[in-house]
Fold this protein.
Amino acid sequence: MSGRVDGKIALVTGAGTGIGRATCISLAREGAEVVVTSRTPAHVEETRSLAEQAGGPTPHAFELDVTDAVQIERVVAAVKERLGRVDILVNNGAVVLPNDPGVTETTGDQWDWIFEVNAKGIFSICKAVLPLMQRGASIVNVGSINSLFARPNTAAYSATKGALFLFTRAVAVEYAPNGIRANLVCPGIVDTPINARYMDEAANPEALLREWNARCPLNRIAQPEEIANCTLFLASDEASFVTGTTLVVDGGATADY
């Protein structure tokens, strides 16, 4: 049987760990030629190796900081030279502010930094890659349930993810005549290195995990592969009539909010 994204070229940002890594593996397993990018070279190579083991064409790997215009230009130029086009773009790279500051505790520099990565970074990648995309191509942006609602001490992060919600819809409308789709995946709490760090720093990690589980009607947090599966669907031709939409993958957390 052929893979669900056979013959497609897929560029994934923030692919070093967590959801981005799982997405690369999922796309590779289903036949895509994956371009792995992350700002951490060691993580890039680890993900590239895992994607290669998953099957499909040999993956490509690049160091990429989405806030660095020179790196973006260099990577996109290399992809154009080697591969000629991009069929799938998954924008997964994102950061959170340390210690979850409230509005009055958030500094101007922190506000600028998180917007530089989570909002402008995705805009910059889309702007650079869209000229390489042809009819039938797909953009999948990875947002958060914070794209849709807020909790205390998430003002800056939620603002970036809220911006991504409308940016995705705007791209979908603008590029629909070109046959290029754009959709947003909004995960709930996921078992990623960032959340593992929260657990490590918590005074009572078991209590924190119980709290996270209790927020979700399914009574557990997600695995990165579960988010990657949804991204794979939106990236594939199975979702050929899906654009400008938001797929919430949170085990029912927002339904019960």
